[in-house]
Amino acid sequence: MGRRIAAGKPDYWDHATLLELAILAKDEQRANDAAAQALAALREGWEAETTARNLRLIREARERRDETLPWAKAIEEGLERRARQPAS
Q1: pLDDT digits (tens, 9 = 90+) for 37-88
Q2: Burial 14-39 (b: 16+ CB within 10 A, else e)
Q3: How far apart are CA 46 and CA 86, in angstroms?
Q4: Of all residues in the chain, what percent are helix, strand and coil, respectively (each to 5)?
Q5: Residues 35, 23: contact at Cβ < 8 Å?
């Protein structure tokens, strides 16, 4: 993944992985940057749907520990909205 990004050839999954890692690290800026890059590289709605599901699992685990990250939920919801949009 890092090599593809460094070589200038990242795909959606490279950015989605960085997004998930940033959310796990609670790094809002990196998460927002990775989300923007992921959405720009999105090819199919199911890709965003899969990432949103992963973020939901992370959010639900945190909520069970009474921990919330409203900005992370906003990213998750943005991915869900994009997944529902018709392909262009």
Answers
A1: 999 999 999 999 999 999 999 999 999 999 999 999 999 999 999 999 876 5
A2: bbbbbbbebbeeeeeeebbebbebbb
A3: 11
A4: 75, 0, 25
A5: no
- And the tokens for 39? 């959405």
CB 75 within 8 A of CB 19: yes
Q: Which two tokens stand for residue 44?
A: 């199919």
What is the SS3 string spanning 9-45? CCCHHHHHHHHHHHHHCCCHHHHHHHHHHHHHHCCCH
Flag whether the pTM goes above 0.90: no
DSSP 7: T
